[in-house]
Amino acid sequence: MSSQEPPRLAAITGAGSGIGEAVAHRLAAEGFDVAVIDIDGGKAESVAGAVARAGGNALPLVVDVCQAESVEAAFAAIEAWRKSPDVLVNSAGVLSIVPVMECQPATFRSVMDVNVLGTFLCAQRAARGMIAQHYGRIVNLTSISGERAGVGRVAYGTSKAAVAGLTRQLAMELGSFGITANSVAPGPIRTPLTEASYTPETIRAFEGMIPAKRLGTVDDVAHAIAFLCGDAAAYVNGVMLAVDGGFLAAGVGTTGGLQA
Is 198 a catalytic site residue? Predict the structure, then answer.
């Protein structure tokens, strides 16, 4: 993007905290205008204000990604503010830890609504403008929980596996319009969402299984997402990029007396 071109615009859901917040700051630092989308208006305002104080341009929006009308209103507001987004990062998500035999239909449905339906509605709406301008980057947040099962993650893990499949479908159907669709699968990351479910025992167990020997940060994930949002990733389409310190790649940590 040259200095003569207008700034590109990124819409980021779940941008009021955690990974979404880090992505808003990362993309703003790279010259994007950002629409800070969150169901919590106070958090959206706070992040947008922080972006503005750092010299960026941000629009806070209160959106329920599960509701088509709310999504439509948000994108109409973004288009009135600047233009159709060049980039969409679907970071809005919920985490429910419930054993499979105790998971109620309402719980399962609510997780699927936010994590899968919300991702679909936002991607579908953003793609309209991207198709018209023959350019777009969609990045969805999946999870290592969509690749490897975990106790209590029947709803969350299933939803994230579905998001990975949705991403491939978007890549297939939108690629001819100059749009890429990829996903980032965070491993164990310290966020407000995960801190509520990670006990000290959980953290120690993760650290023992991760080759990097540490939990990740929201900035680790934001940098990966920023790459997929940029022109350097123009020929990267339909992939899932794990940002997990090697967790998915790792196997047995001890073999023949050797210790990883």
Answer: no
